[in-house]
Q: What sequence folds into this?
């Protein structure tokens, strides 16, 4: 069965940030021991900044919250500045009252990535599953590091990164270093098990991907199109990211 994601087109990135932070705070308030699925990349940076501010102002507590990140580069030690471990600590974990041991990322240094992927799936299940999964979208329609062609029944596993993804993320690496060629990522099936999904898209570079996700067939060629198989997806985007959407698009209301 397919579903039309709830599409909220907001004036700008600030409004997207405010609404995303509000939704995260709401799930924490409504769900004792809430389990968050977290994303990296440039898009959610402002959301983490807002959550940090709200926590510092005493408006929000992460005590008892658990979190699982979508992905991590393979072969980068956690302390590497471009690892998603470092990103999450720098931008979020080290500034809020989320307890060490309650946040999780895939193990990018695993000797056996298949076993590490299996353990990550078990840990998510043992936590009771993800209440709210935050997602960005790649310019090629990827979610997590599920690149075009990723099977919809995929689970946490080792994947090869598309050349365009490596190029898009190269600026996050110190001069002269290129991003790793592989990563560990939650699969599409893992993501679809979250009880609620919130996808953020800002800026004109995401306009084609958003249109491809919402128009045409649901197909692994556009990984984000799998989200139309989920009954509780909210897209928060700015006007630039919405600029390629047609009025006839099922999700545009
Ligand atoms: O928010 P950005 O930096 O545009 O990245 C979009 C997506 O690409 C990734 O960074 C992976 O390349 C995801 O983590 C993110 O959701």
A:
């Amino acid at each position: 069965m397919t579903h039309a994601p709830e599409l909220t087109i907001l004036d700008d990135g600030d409004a997207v940030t405010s609404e995303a932070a509000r939704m995260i705070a709401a799930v924490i308030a409504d769900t004792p021991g809430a389990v968050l699925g977290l994303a990296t990349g440039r898009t959610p940076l402002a959301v983490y900044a807002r959550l940090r501010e709200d926590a510092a102002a005493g408006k929000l507590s992460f005590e008892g919250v658990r979190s699982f990140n979508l992905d991590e580069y393979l072969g980068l030690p956690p302390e590497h500045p471009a690892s998603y471990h470092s990103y999450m600590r720098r931008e979020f974990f080290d500034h809020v009252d989320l307890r060490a041991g309650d946040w999780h990322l895939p193990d990018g240094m695993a000797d056996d990535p298949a076993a590490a992927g299996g353990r990550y799936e078990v840990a998510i299940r043992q936590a009771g599953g993800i209440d709210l999964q935050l997602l960005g979208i790649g310019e090629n329609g990827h979610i997590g590091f599920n690149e075009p062609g990723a099977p919809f029944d995929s689970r946490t596993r080792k994947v090869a990164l598309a050349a365009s993804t490596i190029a898009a993320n190269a600026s996050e690496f110190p001069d002269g270093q290129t991003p790793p060629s592989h990563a560990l990522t939650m699969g599409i099936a893992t993501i679809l098990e979250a009880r609620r999904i919130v996808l953020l898209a800002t800026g004109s570079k995401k306009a084609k991907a958003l249109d491809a996700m919402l128009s045409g067939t649901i197909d692994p060629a556009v990984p984000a199109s799998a989200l139309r198989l989920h009954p509780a997806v909210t897209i928060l985007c700015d006007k630039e990211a919405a600029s390629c959407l047609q009025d006839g698009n099922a999700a545009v209301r």
